[in-house]
Amino acid sequence: AMAHIHKTEVKDDIATMSSVDLIEIAPGQSVAFEQGGLHVMLMRPEVAMAEGDTVSLTLEFANGETLPVAAKVIPMMGGTHSHDG
Questions:
Q1: What is the DSSP letter of 74?
Q2: Spatial separation of the C-alpha atoms in residues 11 and 9, rounded to whole Å
Q3: To bridge 6 with a disulfide, which of 17, 24, 44, 84 should be the other Cys (CB 3.0-4.6 Å)?
Q4: Ordered per-residue pLDDT tens for the chain, 85 residues
């Protein structure tokens, strides 16, 4: 139903996730989305997904440009999570 960008941070051996509203990318720079860091979390997906599946996403930028990307489905770390912030 929706996609959220989250950031995982580990402090004192405890991993937490917080929502990210904006990612600034300087010209010529890139940002990596990966498990244990910045990632896209799909909330209430309309179809069932399994680890290893590929999903199509469209990134929308502040200047109105869009970029279609393919993302691999990976499980959440440890199967549980916490939302802070």
A1: -
A2: 7
A3: 17
A4: 788 899 988 889 888 889 998 899 888 999 998 888 899 988 888 888 899 999 999 988 889 999 999 999 988 754 444 444 4
SS3 47: coil
Beta pairing class for 83-84 and 14-19: parallel
pTM as predicted: 0.70
Residue-wise DSSP of 18-41: EE-S-----TT------TTSEEEE
Using the structure block, give the residue that is written with the tokens 């990632």. 39
**What residue has token string 């941070």?**
9
